[in-house]
Amino acid sequence: MATTTKRAVGELLREWRERRRLSQLALSIEAEISTRHLSFVETGRSRPTSDMVLRLCEHLEVPLRERNGLLLAAGHAPVYPVGDLDTSEMSEVRAALRQVLTAYEPYPALVVDRGWNLVDANAAVGMFLAGADEDLLVPPVNVLRLSLHPRGIAPRIANLGEWRAHVLGRLRRQADATADPGLELLHQELRGYPCDQPEPDVERPAAGEVAVPLRYRHEGRDLAFISMTAVFGTPLDVTLAELAIESFLPADPATAEALRDS
Q: What are the b/e assignments for 112-146, b being 16+ CB within 10 Å?
């Protein structure tokens, strides 16, 4: 939340509690504090220590970036660093990401930040970029915009309505979980893109399906992928916490063969 430092920490904590659909009693039990003390914090009658802010953030599953903002709102210094991937300090992170991306080949895999901007990708991702408008490939490339834009990948997605509903639903849940206004704006933008296929309200598997597939037309072939997301398990750096590896694995033997032969 961009305006975190301009608002009272109690008000912000209350918003996060309500966002997580927790009562004061439920949160106080989880955080092992009294309901009275939590009420005083939320109403501004008590200024929480940095430890108290972090304890509440932990139980509210507040993202690291927003935890720093809540600490600032309470008059404390941020504790989570915001690394730059281009620096020498993050060289091991870059190397680890590159190793994972390379290991996925010949299957497409890419790294994105919280805003779904492309950070890195392996060579196999090139099949998704072929034919996309050059304007959409100017850095920073937003992979969700690229996937649903009519001048991007969308014309080559055979099940566009199904995939679009999946993407928008996932983005909606992410925006709700993080309270990131940038994700809210991205969701509004993507919803405005045209789609000539029906979009299911509820994801239902077809016969033999275990996940929503991406059905993609490439060089006269119909390829089917299932996507998988990987994140760092114990991040203490904001940048690291916001990175995710999105991989696309073959959903059928024909796709696997086509990718191995490419």
A: bebbbebbbbbebbebbbeebeeebeeeebbbbbb
Q: How far apart are CA 241 and CA 77, in angstroms?
A: 19
For residue 9, what are the CA distances in angstroms to 59, 84, 197, 238?
A: 16, 28, 45, 20
- What is the reported pTM? 0.88
Confidence band of 5 (pLDDT split at 50, 70, 90): very low
Same fold, 4-73 and 88-261: no
Tell me what pLDDT residue 203 has.
62
**Segments making up each domain of the chain, as ranges:** 4-73, 88-261
Query: Architecture of 4-73 per CATH?
Result: Orthogonal Bundle (1.10)
The topology (CATH level 3) of 88-261 is: Beta-Lactamase (3.30.450)
Dist. CA 252–CA 62, nearest whole Å: 38
List pLDDT tens digits, range 159-174.
999 999 999 999 999 9
